[in-house]
Design a protein that fits this description.
556 residues, 5-stranded antiparallel sheet, 13 helices
Length: 556
């Protein structure tokens, strides 16, 4: 009887173990499959962004279609649409062309039916002109003029002379830009300082005689600077006149003639005459220009360097602000605070802050940082500039501090986890050797917990780089004329507004006048944003791994 019971129990437990093992293996495969699916989804998204993003810089051939009515259409084949016939609708077989010449046609795209196409060709002499305004021009070269003088005539003669002329015009544009940002910008800066000095003197309360003497000195210096400014302005006017001295006469596929100032042309290419290697070289050049140039045409063309710079600078300012705030709070909660109801409530509040919508932090940053602190700083330090605000308006400093508050719960939680992972024996050994508690925390515990702290910083930086909603309230703009960092004292201008890659994606993708034409630009900017965030995270991960290897002996 007892043997039968033992046998039954053994078979029962053996059956349970077999079922448990089978369930464990199935659960393991399920987790592995879920991980593989997530990896595939991420790779799929990145592949889509890479394909569409790099496709933005690839130059397709220009195709000229002759239609039954005798008209001609020239452009890039953008899309093909084939729809089978139904009882309600006839069959559809048509092409969508990106035609350019916005100033001539008023359109960027046009649909043509395949049934209306008589002939199709890819002419080698057709040119694509990238312009500073009105987008690209597609057509044929006719002549180059300087006033009434014809410098070149005929497609090949104009093409041979156009390249060196465009190089000259690019150098002239760079010289104009250097003059505007350099000498003229410096004089404008000095004139503004003199104006503020006069205003400061007016409200200073000095005796009338002293005030008049100083005002006379300011007026004299101001007259000298204004005279210098007028000379530079005259020089700038002459340079701009020289920039537009030559005119390129081109014709569209339909025969319309268009006169284009050569100084307004960025580049000229013959897409149908480029081979694969030539198009690859052109793609590399466009990628470089996209990264280092300033935007133009309401951000729909040109580069996005100010947005890259603003994003990176704002993230690092946020990191410098959130690191001490989050680490100090976590050290106090873990090492000094008496564990009890109050500390538990604080931890609950910290966790709840992580779930607050980001726009709420933006409203708080606007009210607290911009209006309260910034307005107080203006009244205290910059009364002469009022009512024009200096710090009492959105700027990169307030944006960074707002995002620091947004991400501080992540840093606190990660730092507490890192501190908890430091073995108790390490603390006790330090205290036994005569170190104080503060010395133990500063020299032993914090270095050992540094990998956990950096993990929190990585997560905070990744989230801050992608946030857009709060930044729209506290300092981010569509186009910032100057960077927050330049060569004029105090060099780092924390009160200035800035551009951001996330907002650039939103602006180009949803606010541009022709969203369909800018869709490839959205993919390119999104790919660049992911690349920037990845590079910043890799930098932090490399530092974390270095510290982890350095303090591996502490069993962290």
């Amino acid at each position: 009887m007892q043997n039968d019971e033992k046998t039954s129990h053994a078979s029962l437990y053996g059956g349970d173990r077999g079922w448990s093992e089978r369930f464990g293996h199935a659960f393991t495969w399920l987790c592995g499959g879920a991980l593989a699916l997530n990896v595939l989804l991420v790779l799929g998204i990145l592949s889509l962004l890479a394909w569409k993003g790099f496709g933005y810089f690839w130059q397709e051939d220009l195709v000229e279609f002759t239609l039954k009515d005798g008209s001609k259409v020239l452009g890039e084949v953008w899309e093909e649409e084939i729809v089978a016939a139904t009882p309600e609708h006839p069959a559809v077989d048509r092409l969508r062309l990106k035609i350019g010449n916005r100033d001539v046609n008023g359109l960027d795209f046009v649909w043509i039916d395949r049934a209306d196409v008589v002939s199709r060709r890819e002419p080698k002499d057709v040119v694509l002109l990238e312009r500073l305004e009105w987008g690209n021009f597609h057509g044929y070269l006719r002549e180059i003029r300087r006033g009434d003088q014809v410098l070149a005539q005929g497609s090949e003669a104009v093409w041979q002379q156009l390249g060196p002329l465009l190089a000259t015009k690019e150098a002239e544009r760079e010289e104009i830009h250097a003059l505007e940002k350099g000498a003229i910008g410096a004089i404008n800066y000095e004139i503004e300082k003199l104006r503020l000095a006069a205003r400061r003197l007016e409200i200073s309360g000095l005796p009338a005689a002293e005030r008049e003497r100083r005002q006379a000195e300011i007026d004299k210096t101001l007259q000298e600077r204004e005279a210098e400014f007028q000379q530079l302005a005259d020089r700038l006017f002459q340079m701009r006149e020289a920039l537009t001295a030559e005119t390129l006469v081109a014709a569209t596929a339909s025969g319309e003639t268009k006169e284009i100032p050569v100084g307004g042309i960025v580049s000229a290419i013959r897409p149908d005459d480029l081979g694969v290697l030539g198009k690859l070289a052109l793609q590399g050049k466009r990628i470089r220009q996209f990264v280092v140039d300033d935007p133009r045409e309401s951000n729909t063309e040109g580069g996005i360097f100010p947005a890259i710079f603003g994003t990176v600078m704002m993230v690092f300012l946020m990191a410098f602000a959130v690191a001490p705030l989050g680490v100090v709070a976590a050290v106090y909660l873990r090492e000094y605070a008496k564990q009890g109801l109050l500390v538990r409530l604080v931890r609950i509040a910290v966790n709840n802050l992580a779930g607050v919508p980001s726009i709420v932090f933006g409203v708080f940053g606007l009210g607290f940082f911009v209006y309260l602190i910034g307005g107080s700083l203006d009244k205290l330090l910059y009364p002469e500039a009022l009512p024009t605000p200096t710090f009492g308006t959105g700027g990169i400093l307030w944006a960074a501090l707002t995002l620091a508050l947004l991400t501080v719960p992540v840093v606190i939680v990660a730092t507490e986890e890192g501190l908890a992972a430091v073995p108790r024996i390490v603390r006790e050994g330090s205290l036994a050797l005569g170190a104080t508690k503060f010395e133990t925390i500063r020299k032993v515990v914090l270095p050992a917990a540094a990998p956990g702290i950096l993990t929190g910083m990585i997560l905070a930086m990744a989230r801050a780089a992608g946030e857009v909603a709060p930044l729209m309230i506290v300092g981010m703009v569509k186009l910032a004329p100057t960077l927050p960092l330049d060569g004029r004292p105090p060099f780092l201008h924390l009160e200035r507004k800035f551009m951001h890659l996330g907002f650039h994606i939103f602006d180009v993708g949803f606010q541009s006048p022709n969203i369909e034409a800018t869709t490839p630009l959205v993919f390119a900017t999104a790919l660049l944003l992911i690349t920037v965030v990845t590079l910043m995270n890799l930098l932090a991960i490399g530092l974390r791994n270095h510290l982890r290897r350095k303090y591996a002996g502490s069993a962290v």
